[in-house]
Amino acid sequence: MKAALLFAMILGAAAPALAQDAGQPQTVNRFAASIAPAERFELKGMLVERHGSGARPLILIPGLSSGAWVWQETVRELAGAHTIYVVTLPGFDGRPALEGNPFDNAKSALAELIAARRLAKPVLVGHSLGATLSIALAQELPNALGGVVAIDGLPVFPRTEDMPPEQRPAMAEAVRRQMAAAAGPAFAAQQRQYMRTIGLVDMGKADDVAMLTSRSDPIAVADYAASVMARDLRPGLPKIHVPVLVLAPTYGPDAALTGMSGSEKVAYYRELMTGTPKLDVKPIDNARHFAMLDQPRAVNDALRQFLYNL
After folding, report:
1. Domain ranges within the chain, ordered by starting residue
2. What is the topology classification, in CATH, of domain 38-309?
3. Which among 6, 152, 182, 263 is placed 20 to 30 Å from 282, CA to CA?
């Protein structure tokens, strides 16, 4: 894949930056209000919010630049039957970043959460970066989990699967430098551009989400993205003992740009997950990257069915 297209997938940089609409009345951000948790605590720089008290624990892991707010509909739907731990990773949503490799730090914090709370077979539900973290944890803790749901997140960044391993560090560093160059208003404009072109179908939702993701540390966002780009977790997929559900968002108007129909995208995701013993890949129609915000009912129904079948 050409570097420009790769950057466009990450940054939404393929089109000119979109200016804020001048003179438009300010409205309440529909995603800004959070459900009050039963408990809130920090663990290795990661914020954890607990909801509900059901038998099967769930750990909800947001994606790049996102906070706990991205999971509010899922919390509303499932907290009555499950104990839900929603995390916000260091560097995101106004939280300070940590020294060291952010992916490894986050993975260690999530493993510590499972151990410290003695969670029995928790199900990891991750979006994007959170999905890749979930896959990595399922490889390292094959007997500690109950299942994994990955929403538009994979063991290797799409279209880099054929890249020789020795080229990944340089590619990841180029991505990091490009992303880290944006700060302040430029970062906010970048976020809005991304959300409107890749993130969500609904432009109003896209703008609301961009306002919240802009609260993240641009350097931390760049470091997380580079850490994911540098990895290929596919060799470890056979180690995963638990059921894995991958949700692939599909949106017809985007097919002309990607050259991939909805069914072809599902097949492609299944190919990238080759070797996973207990795998299911399902489409979420009329949704972009933030499928749980574009189509919350479809995502929550798929999650509820997955949990029922465990």
Report:
1. 38-309
2. Rossmann fold (3.40.50)
3. 6
